Amino acid sequence: DMYAELTAGGNMTYRFNRRSSLGITGYGSDVNFLTKGIELDFQEWARTPWGGPFGAVGLSGSYGKSWADVFFEVTRSFDSMDDGGGGIGSIIRGVGTFGTHEFELSGRYYADDFANPYARPIAAPDQLEGLRARDEVGGRLRYTGSFAKRWNLRANVDVWTRPSDFDPQAFLFLRSDMKINDQYRWGMWAEYRQSNLEGSQCRLFFGDQFEISDEDGNPTLCNLDRMAFTGRLRYQPVRKYWFDLQYRHNIYDGGRHDLSAIGIATAKLSDVLRFRGRLRWNWDDIEDNTNLEQSVWAYFDLTYRLRAKDRLRLRYDYFVFRDDRASTDDREPNPEHWLWFQYEAKF
Fold first, then answer.
1. 325 φ/ψ angles, rounded to the nearest 5 degrees
2. Which helix (H) or strand (E) holds 160?
3. Which of 148, 285, 327, 346 has the greatest number of CB atoms lying within 10 Å of its CB?
4. For residue 334, which phi and psi values (nearest 5 degrees)?
5. 103 vs 96: CA distance, rounded Å
């Protein structure tokens, strides 16, 4: 009951063939606040631009031949903000396929005044005034491949910076999955990430003591470097029963360590009845039990298929906080017990 937003737009695309096209897309939005007796607007760090109407118009295209495909898009945003007015966002992506191997190379640029809340392009997880795809220039290289139908490999290298404040950042990811035999599968992956966070995002990593806003009410910023290592093993003695074990260890700059361990058991008891149980232990900042969360969460799920599109589900959850934070001492109840009963029908 706070505001109403009216959005209208359209797309027109001409396809030269199955892999080549050229199109134009545009939209406009206007916000009307419904409150009486007070003039309201969005904060500067809100996802929606403030000040009045906003929108965007963009040109997109694709071209493919043989083993390669290229895609591009260039967009101009428009808004009514006093310090904005809109800016340019652009992305180009190329994909090459060689048998069971695929390479993807992309580049992106988003001006610091590019404010398009409905854009979902490739972008780093940091934000500027509520939007990821803003004030950023970067490139990404990805690889996906399989060997001998048993070993899958995925790799990702993503680097970016802010044009307004040169501060290079990176995200590196490598994952390997292998089917050892019909009963055992394992997977291992590692990642390294640099991120610039703001506001409540910082508190998730640095604890309740972190001040999420300054004296003027603006979100405070924080830098975060993280390495993570994960291992996963699946044991499937028969086709209808399998067990998964996973362990993950995070290492942050400053020496903080997080860990989590998960066990999952799944059983297809019949063609219409499935059971699943999951146990997770999560411990953030293992050297200081008064700073962040340590918890144990278990659930048991029983799903019964009444018909092809109808399902009956019964689930029990057990959740307990095990850390020594003041908020945990004041929590009532702890542990928590949840019982879910759900009926789902699809048409």
1. -70, 155
2. strand 151-162
3. 285
4. -150, 105
5. 5
